[in-house]
Amino acid sequence: MPNNGISRRAFGLGVAASVGSGLIASALADTRVNKTADFLQNGEYNWFPERSPTGPVVIIVSVPDQMVHVYRNGIRIAASSCSTGKAGHGTPTGVFKILQKDKHHRSSTYNNAPMPNMNRLTWSGIALHAGNLPGYPASHGCVRLPLGFSELLCGITKLDMTVIIADENSQPASVVHPGMVLGNYASQEFGAVDASIKHYQYAQGRSQETSATSIVVSAKDRSISLWDNARIVATGKVDIAQPEKPIGRHVYTLTQVNEGTKELTWVSMAMSSRSKNADDNALRRVKAHPDILKKVQKAMRQGMTLVITDESSGSKNRTADNFTIFTGEGLY
Fold first, then answer.
1. What does the DSSP assignment read for 221-279?
2. Does the keyword Cell wall biogenesis/degradation apply (predicted)?
3. Which residues does the annotation mark as catalytic?
4. Which of 53, 118, 154, 226 is most buried as measured by Cβ atoms within 10 A of its Cβ?
């Protein structure tokens, strides 16, 4: 399958370096509290896994708020203060997959500095891990967390799980789509999607191999790309309702399949101010052509990521937009 004009720069920034020294969180900056996310102070975190015991987990990092939010099955179960990249070493924003986990990791860049409970997001140095929390952005690109929170988080994360790093003060919302995905389709087609998801869950339970499935839709190109890890496995065309209106930049993660109502539930995240409060409408405006739709249906699985953007999939100037989509060893 040709690359369809998407290069390693196509949705990317240059990758920042790893976090520097001062990586172990002090006791003063590591406090579990019974507070809501809005009232957390630096070094504090909450943890309420009982609110949603099972289901796909999505992590949202808000750079402006210096906060991390953890959602399971679309419900927020935890939140924590954090410290992201300082000036000149900003944490890249976008959609990432967890590539590696290591409870006792040490930095290969910064004097073998400890990076406890590390969840790697890029092979070039960006990760979630325990670290010093001064109350402002201070890392070399990583997301530093309270030590206690990082231990709890490491206990529920899995390889290929979605992590969204956002530069907007928006919170994820739940979107229920009446069709399968990318268009309004007959309810009898639900069986094909449901069967694909169940088959993947069965196979995943019997194998140690993982697969990060993502879909990227470009409104400008009227194109759709299906990704499996760092490789494009299918491309096709989409129709956009009201094409004269911008669609914005949105990220969706599939969290629930309801066999009773034959609906899919997505956790949505607007990645720009003009996208806020329009997530449901954006998803409904996109309709995939039949040939690519069948391939998408077969690739459906809980935890998969769908990105919709106004930008061209072959743009050479995406670095200016401060948006990165990573998976496997590559970035689209």
1. TTEEEEEETTEEEEEEEEEESSTTS----EEEEEEEEETTTTEEEEEEEE-SGGGTT-H
2. yes
3. 129, 142
4. 118
